[in-house]
Task: structure prediction
Amino acid sequence: MPATRTSLRRGAVAAAALPLLIGALASCGYGSEAKNDDTKANVAAGGKKLSADTVKVGYFPNLTHATALVGIQEGLIAKELGGTKLATQTFNAGPSEIEALSGGSIDIGFIGPSPSINGYVKSKGQNLRIISGSASGGVKLVVNPAKIKTLDDLKGKKIATPQKGNTQDVAFLNWISEKGWKVDAESGKGDVSVVRTENKVTPDAYKSGSVDGAWVPEPTASKLVSEGGKVLLDESTLWPDKKFVITNIIVSQSFLKEHPDVVEAFLRGTVKTNEWINANPDKAKASANAALKEETGKELAAKVIDPAWPSIQITNDPLAATLDAQAQHAVKAGLLEKPDLAGVYDLTLLNKVLKAAGQPEVADAGLGVK
Result:
């Protein structure tokens, strides 16, 4: 039985993005403004409290954060936490979530690779660890088929990405570079005009003709398709085994040190959630949509969620080598100086949970805690 949940409205998260790093990191933002926080307390009936009274978790109301959406909606994470309360906050921007983690407003977060790198480098490796994967894929290049019929037709066109230096922006700039085309990463001007546009605004920008397409995550990609767009490229086809990290789970280093039992229980919940999602894709899709309706006030239409859902792979594997590759793509684009990512991963507790569950352990690509 899912745990009973109560909700209360908290103050708005500061919308300011993380300061840009000078020298070590340049212009590696993520997302748009943060939304107001929702905090939900979940306590498994009769459960024993762990070393912390509460664990505070942040995530985005996005399909690529399905582990959080479903795990909370179905009570699978709360069940493993027993008497320790699960308090949640939703965000619309990576910098706001990193700021919340660094400030102690949250302990654990679901977040993309670019803000993970940003936060780790900015703190000189002191604020976070990546402790698990969550999702792969779910990113597509969608275009106006009347204007763009082949990939070569992108030259001279206006293509949206969510924000300068965010995960999709870096991927698109890297793809442009590999085509031999030139774009100034700062301004977005060049052989292709890269137009930085919030995901919630992109469908309207597409309908108005102010952009000719977009390199975006789900469900924005499928929203564009529902408006007549065509998928010209699925980013997964550019990666080995068609897998690349789109969502990690991070934890503050202080919380990990002080409450490893809570972190381990949380990871048991996410591993069981991922197993349930993969075994029950239709039920999981409905659960995620119900969670989105609760968080945003509106569920996704079938014509959007039905094509979006299967393009996202739910996984415990953080796909560490692909995070490192994404960091190198940002370096090549001129948005990031070569980062030191040694120690960004600590997969010890995840691998303990996976081993106990009879599942294969995962690797950190040499970027783990020594």
